[in-house]
Specification:
By secondary structure, this protein is mainly alpha-helical. The protein is built from three helices and two strands; from the N terminus they run E-E-H-H-H. Strands 1-2 form a two-stranded antiparallel ribbon.
């Protein structure tokens, strides 16, 4: 069985900056998954704080962009962690068919 402490991130890009789909940022491969998920937790805390401000009517027009950008970082980070996890043999065979 694989040791979860040894799981690392794969790579994922985010921050689409053109109609051509070019993405400006990447999650770095090889980061310990636990460290990446701890950072994701911090991003989620920030999103909740900003979303609360929006809900209370504090500067909703500009704050929504902070929420969108933070959610892109969260999504890419989770994808990178998932990309770095080993695949079970059953799932790998199912994906190949």
């Amino acid at each position: 069985m694989n040791n979860p402490a040894t799981f690392v991130t794969g790579t994922a890009s985010f921050g689409r900056c053109s109609a051509d789909g070019h993405e400006l940022f990447k999650v770095t491969a090889g980061v310990p998954a636990q460290d990446a998920l701890q950072k994701v937790s911090c991003y989620i805390e920030a999103v909740l704080s900003v979303a609360n401000d929006i809900g209370m009517g504090d500067d909703p027009d500009t704050s929504i962009w902070a929420v969108i950008n933070l959610l892109e970082m969260i999504q890419a980070s989770v994808w990178a962690v998932l990309d770095g996890l080993p695949r079970s043999p059953a799932k790998a065979q199912g994906a190949a068919s």
